[in-house]
Design a protein that fits this description.
mainly alpha
Length: about 140
């Protein structure tokens, strides 16, 4: 009985740690979105020095985002294996898990997905804007 409780406590700890990583990842994407929007403003304001600075900051931030994503994916795979499952995409796996875990993880998973989508859209907007500017030159 103690072993079963200990295993459950370990899994709950892993769920909590994964939630914290998801929250960090979402906050990081939100900060990158602000940088991407500042880059748009610099491009439309004809401020090449600021464009370069924002591009450098975004590149550094995207590298850090990749590290956070890797940490999240490793934590999710470790949790899934510890729970007796083969690793799979977190959202799909989560839908079949106990409600206590879904209650803790569903919202942060959704928020990371949405923040990543917004950042991707802004970066695509910036790419098109930069391409347009280059075509004018």
């Amino acid at each position: 009985m103690t072993t079963m409780l200990g295993r459950r406590a370990d899994l709950d700890t892993q769920v909590s740690e994964l939630r914290q990583t998801l929250l960090e990842e979402r906050a990081h994407y939100d900060a990158l979105l602000v940088l991407a929007q500042a880059q748009t403003e610099a491009m439309t304001g004809n401020d090449p020095d600021n464009v370069e600075e924002r591009a450098r900051e975004l590149a550094e931030g995207l590298a850090a985002a990749g590290e956070l994503k890797g940490r999240r994916e490793n934590q999710a795979a470790t949790l899934q294996r510890a729970a007796g499952h083969r690793p799979q995409p977190l959202g799909a796996w989560l839908s079949a898990q106990p409600s206590a875990w879904r209650d803790v993880l569903a919202e942060p998973v959704s928020e990371v997905r949405e923040a990543g989508r917004r950042l991707m859209e802004q970066n695509e907007k910036n790419r098109r804007l930069a391409s347009f500017c280059l075509d004018l030159v």
